[in-house]
Amino acid sequence: MILNSTVHIHERKSNDAEVESLREEYHQRVATLERKVYALTKERDTLRWEQNKKSDAAALLKEKDEIINQVLAEGEELSKKQAAQEGQIRKLRAQIREFEEEKKGLITKLQEGDAAVAVAEEVKKNNHVDGKTLDNELEVVEGMKLDKGYISPYFITNQNNKKCELENPLIIIHEKKISSINDVVKVLELVLQL
Question: Which domain of life is it from (predicted)?
Answer without folding.
Answer: Eukaryota
